[in-house]
Amino acid sequence: RHIECPRGPFENKSQEKRAAQALLARRLSELERGAGNNASRKVTFAEVCDRYLSSKVNLRPSTRRGYESLVHLYLAPYFGAWRIQDVSSMAIERFRSDLQHGIPKPISDAIEQRRHRSKVALASARKKQAEGRKQIGLRTINKCLTLLTMILNYASRHRWVDWNPASHVEKLREPRRTSDAPLDSNVLSGAEARLLLEAASTAKRDRSGALISTNYRLIFSVAVFTGLRAGEILALQWGDIDWASRQIHVRRTWKDGTYHDPKTKASTRRVDMPTFLVHQLREWRLACPKGDEDLVFPNLEGSHLSHANLLQRGFYPALRRAGLRRIRFHDLRHTFASLMLAAGEDVVRVSRLLGHASPTITLNVYSHMLPREHYRSTDRLANMVFGNNLETSQSQDTIAACEAEEISLSDQALRMVARDGIEPSTRGFSVRCSTN
């Protein structure tokens, strides 16, 4: 039995009795929905987070680590001791505002504790502190809100809360991509990609004929001309290459010391190779170190090449020798997509080569890379509707008007200055219209 009294003050017994009846009706309604038991009242947010993470049995290891990091660094330090029913929309909005304007003390303490447990995290923290980065990024805040929504949906399904208060909280709007966006500045042009490949080191042997260097140039060529991810390249086996059709079959990816399925269903794909790359791969197969897994790009012992060694020994030195800015290895994938679209390749085709789940993803990321030489498309549309008579009649009318008034282009520009206040870019030029 649980005795609960309505909160007053009340003017008389009758008013108190009506409030008690209303409270009883509300509690009975909660019992019918399964949300009024004592156990649900005592569940904390931290317990719900642990149960939610335990229930996600099909998460990829990298996704699980991302969720756990967001919970342990941001959500649990802020809401951990709260009852799950006390997490309201207003509290979530206050959480969003606190993250946007700084780092709250509970979260700051959690970050410091985690830094002391990890030397790598501590070095990264010192670097960020030296750079003056003391705020949390908008993308991280939105990730926290997304995960918070999923956790509260889980709580709602188990009747620990009546509804999801995070479903009505708006996310922060990230700035629109401009010409100075990181994607634009990190994409290599065709000439820069050639400089990178020329500066990359090829496989070398000592006097005894033993291999002493990895063929980094060929790895970069595969990334630039196929758009494969780093993990997909490191997981390539010689059986994945179809020499007859000149294609690479992407079947797996290598990450965190183990094989994984490709990122999405569409990532299991076939990617075309240029002819020169096929010839280089055939030559490399003869010199490639042999191993049990028959890898295309192994280390000198024939085992898996470390991603850190790929960057520190191959990629970053090649960028320095080529005189290029420091970019990520993943930006070679963006370079492939950008150059393909600039060459006029169809967006759907590029999306399939990249392994995107939908061409919409490709358009959202690379729409600003599409060629802009389509300013005559409206004229072609008008010709389709009206036929050639439209263009002929307009050109004849223009010629007649020019012959009648003999208006030079410089006079027209000066009239625009007087009328609209536009300053012409050139002066003193005159072209007379004629029928020739």
Q: Quick summary of this structure?
A:
The protein has helices at residues 13-33, 38-42, 45-55, 61-79, 89-101, 105-117, 119-130, 138-157, 182-186, 190-199, 216-226, 230-234, 275-287, 307-322, 331-342, 347-354, 359-366, 377-386, 388-405, 409-420, and strands spanning 241-242, 247-250, 253-255, 258-260, 269-272. With 436 residues, it is mainly alpha-helical.
Description:
The chain is mainly alpha-helical and 436 residues long. It is built from 20 helices and five strands. It has helices at residues 13-33, 38-42, 45-55, 61-79, 89-101, 105-117, 119-130, 138-157, 182-186, 190-199, 216-226, 230-234, 275-287, 307-322, 331-342, 347-354, 359-366, 377-386, 388-405, 409-420, and strands at residues 241-242, 247-250, 253-255, 258-260, 269-272. The strands form two sheets. Strands 1-2-5 form a three-stranded antiparallel beta sheet. Strand 3 and strand 4 form a beta hairpin. Helix 4 (61-79) crosses helix 6 and helix 11 crosses helix 15 (331-342). It is elongated and about 100 Å long.
